[in-house]
Amino acid sequence: MEQAAVQRAAGADDLAACVALMRTGSRTFFAASRLLPPRVRCAAIALYAFCRVADDLVDDGDLRLDQALAQLGLRLDHIYDNDPLDHLEDRALAEVVRRHDLPRPLLDALLDGFAWDAQGRAYDTLEDLHDYGARVAGSVGAMMCWIMGVRSAQALARACELGVAMQLTNIARDVGEDARKGRLYLPRQWLVDAGIDADAWLARPGCSPALQSVVDRLLVEADQLYTQASSGIALLPRDCRSAILAARLVYAEIGQQLRRNGLDPLAQRAVVPRSRKLVLLACAGVQSGWVSRRPPVVPPLAAIAYLVEHCHASALALSDGEAMASASINGRVAWMLDLFERLEAQKLAQREGVPRAHPRLSH
Q1: What are phi and psi of 362, to 5 degrees?
Q2: CA 339, CA 77: separation in Å to the nearest integer?
């Protein structure tokens, strides 16, 4: 009992530290997470903390990219062996993995996305950008869906698409900030279509009607994905819907705020005012009760299909394992019942003076 109390206290300390990481990181995620039920919120906080630390290690750490990725791979190995290294976020994530059987390919996809960031990869087309968004955000959407206990392909697809939509919003909002770091995530073919030389613009970033048209085009794409992803909210547990809808509304509002700012992401960073955010959180609580009970069946965005397939394979493996365990238990129960019946028959035969064979006990 004393050891269990120590473990609970250590877990509480780890969770508190993870909350601190979230509070200083994504304010939108932190606000929405407060609407989640405790059984999901704790896992979401632990997941966010590991993602944040992993991103910092790859992007801002002192290690070379290959060294950082090798270290993170080793940490995941230990986490999935239920023997986490001595990092609070590793211990917290190991507990999430143990409780929820979280598929590792989702975390591997996330690390791939971090590596793409560190490599300074260029994205020529919208589809290329979808591939990136699937890794750095779609994977997180799938993990959130999974820890809510939802395994259906449609729900997982919509969760991934919501993550990609949020990432597209982030990219539109952070054009100026990324440019100051020498990074460009806008599809380069779109820039060519608008008459912008990507490399020349990156050397001397500036706002123009042509750039504004590209930013608006990206926001339109994000809005379409928000609409498609929203149909999956009905597939989530009732007590989780308002939190996910809140995150969807607040992130989409970032795009609206960017439009109000004149589609100039270099002049200022679009931020949703706290008063507006509170209104949206309240709206989410009301609207979550109105979501359609029979959302349409829609093929997944091509970039996230592989994540859904990984989850489907993991769900089947878990289902097979549970079926085997159930079959084993059912077999033992049947054997016990059969044994009891034969013992009762033997006792009855002895009372009647009829010789009977002894029941076989070696099954």
Answers
A1: -100, 85
A2: 45
Amino acid at 352: E
Residue the block writes with tokens 């999974």: 146
Is residue 84 pLDDT above 70, yes or no? yes
Phi then psi dihedrals of residue 248, to 5 deg: -65, -45
Calpha distance 141→144 (Å, rounded): 5
pLDDT in tens, 318-346: 875 554 444 444 445 444 445 545 555 56
pLDDT tops 50 at residue 138: yes
- In Å, what is the CA distance from 103 to each residue of 45, 150, 151, 316, 354? 17, 13, 11, 12, 60
Q: pLDDT tier at 290 (50, 70, 90 boundaries)?
A: confident
The closest alpha carbon to 66, from 4, 107, 114, belongs to 114
- Which two structure tokens, joined as six digits, stand for 9? 């206290």
What pLDDT does 340 receive?
46
Position 218, amino acid? L
The residue assigned the tokens 């087309």 is 125
Exposure letters 263-293 (e unless 16+ CB within 10 A, then b): bbbbeeebebeeeebeebbeebeebbeebee
* Tokens 């698409």 -> residue: 161
Task: Please tell me the distance from the alpha carbon of residue 114 to that of residue 91, in angstroms, as a whole number.
Answer: 21
Residues 12, 1: Cα–Cα separation, whole Å: 17
Which residues, 6 or more positions from 319, have their beta carbon under 8 angstroms from its beta carbon?
none
Q: Angle 139-147/104-119 helices, nearest 10 degrees?
A: 160
Contact indicator for 294, 147 with CB cutoff of 8 Å: no
Q: How confident is the model at residue 297 (pLDDT cuts 50, 70, 90)?
A: confident
Task: Find where tokens 């560190």 sit.
Answer: 118
| Rounded (10°) CA dihedral 164, 168, 169, 175 | 150
d(CA 307, CA 106): 7
